[in-house]
Inverse folding.
């Protein structure tokens, strides 16, 4: 991400329907899987925290720590949310002590920015304690690829097969794998198609983000956020996830190393390219 995109996020993410609705969904999913929800000694670590709004939505209930490779993003986050611990650095190295005690780890819209996404996820998984919940979101469906993705430095958009392959043979138990932002998928697909033909994103800072009129913003937020109840019911197979959507969400439960020893993979120790801005 570029400076103008971080500045745009900081300006609109407290109001724009996509950011607000996604935070409502993430908050409910975290509450649904954290073994100590509502207790301040329960730690949430946000890897690729950007300008900090996702953590701010959880800070009243959890001890929150965010990390990002962008110094500008961390400066914006610290200025806006001074009660939260924000770290400029790379994960998992620079938050190892926090990950070792984490109840929930957020990896939201990060993996698409990283060339070796599987290696990064593997290192994070192995830095987490048993029973930690790792919540992952990524953009979905290469048919939605547009100048918006290029501007954000995405390497790819995912389908369920590609995403689930990232944790194959890692010591985790998948609890949820579903598309989301499903209700608005047809509208987004039309809009992205128009952007591709124009060769230009439809919003500000070379992205598709632009504040719509207040009534439209409210309707879009309600439609998107309304998916949270179905996603909660889909945890542990209690309901089927959405079959298509603009994004994908997964929840992985870290397994005990000894219990999962037969499934451990050989993790390379080569340096990772960790472009963790989201």
């Amino acid at each position: 991400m570029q400076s103008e995109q971080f500045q745009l996020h900081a300006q609109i993410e407290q109001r724009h329907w996509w950011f607000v609705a996604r935070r409502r969904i993430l908050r409910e999913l975290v509450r649904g899987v954290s073994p100590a929800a509502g207790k301040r000694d329960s730690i949430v670590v946000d890897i690729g925290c950007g300008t900090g709004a996702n953590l701010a939505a959880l800070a009243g209930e959890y001890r929150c720590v965010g990390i990002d490779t962008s110094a500008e993003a961390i400066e914006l986050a610290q200025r806006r949310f001074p009660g939260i611990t924000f770290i400029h650095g790379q994960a998992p190295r620079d938050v190892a002590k926090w990950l070792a005690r984490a109840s929930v780890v957020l990896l939201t819209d990060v993996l698409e920015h990283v060339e070796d996404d599987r290696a990064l996820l593997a290192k994070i998984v192995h830095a987490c304690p048993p029973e930690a919940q790792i919540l992952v979101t990524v953009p979905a469906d290469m048919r939605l690829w547009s100048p918006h993705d290029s501007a954000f430095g995405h390497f790819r958009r995912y389908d369920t097969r590609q995403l689930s392959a990232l944790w194959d043979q890692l010591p985790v138990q998948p609890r949820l794998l579903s598309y989301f932002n499903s209700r608005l998928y047809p509208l987004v697909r039309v809009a992205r198609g128009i952007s591709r033909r124009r060769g230009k994103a439809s919003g500000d800072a070379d992205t598709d983000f632009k504040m719509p009129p207040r009534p439209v913003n409210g309707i879009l937020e309600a439609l998107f956020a309304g998916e949270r109840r179905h996603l909660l019911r889909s945890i542990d197979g209690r309901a089927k996830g959405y079959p298509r959507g603009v994004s994908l969400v997964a929840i992985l439960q870290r397994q005990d190393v000894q219990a999962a020893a037969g499934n451990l993979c050989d993790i390379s120790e080569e340096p990772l390219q960790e472009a963790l801005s989201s």
